């Protein structure tokens, strides 16, 4: 939990461990990869990380369209290539920024239409960041 709360702490700790075991090869042989500071399975995100994701248009009147958007399926739904957009954003970008981006990009009149961003049919709150979503939904 501390690694998630203090920015950069995880990376600095791993560097310290690598430096420590580099000067002590005898102890490094008996240490686990995590103890040696090797990044075995990264589950810690930092605000500097870049997150790649895709967005797809889902028609509100077509419930099959929304339910077929699951990223677990290896087979894309028909005509999904034309509505899917790939983005790379910093981990600290929040949903409200993405909504504003989409509104400006596609010239959506916010007085007539609302933009909702869903993850597997669940609307995401505006204050969630991409880092929050990665932790909550365990991409």
TrEMBL record:
Gene3D superfamilies: Phosphatidylinositol 3-kinase Catalytic Subunit, Chain A, domain 1. Residues 22-41, 63-84 are annotated as: Disordered. This is Posterior sex combs. One of its GO terms (cellular component) is PRC1 complex. Residues 85-139 form the RAWUL domain. One of its GO terms (biological process) is negative regulation of transcription by RNA polymerase II. The gene is PSC. Residues 63-74 have a biased composition (Low complexity).
């Amino acid at each position: 939990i501390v690694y998630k709360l203090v920015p950069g702490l995880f990376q600095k700790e791993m560097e310290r461990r690598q430096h420590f075991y580099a000067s002590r090869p005898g102890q490094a042989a008996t240490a686990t990869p995590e103890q040696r500071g090797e990044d075995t399975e990264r589950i810690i995100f930092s605000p500097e990380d870049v997150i790649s994701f895709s967005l797809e248009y889902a028609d509100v009147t077509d419930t099959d369209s929304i339910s077929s958007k699951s990223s677990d399926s290896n087979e894309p739904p028909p005509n999904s290539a034309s509505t899917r957009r790939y983005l790379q954003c910093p981990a600290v970008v929040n949903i409200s920024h993405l909504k504003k981006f989409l509104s400006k990009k596609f010239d959506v009149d916010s007085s007539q239409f609302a933009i909702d961003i869903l993850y597997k049919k669940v609307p995401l709150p505006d204050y969630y960041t991409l880092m929050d979503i990665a932790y909550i939904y365990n991409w």
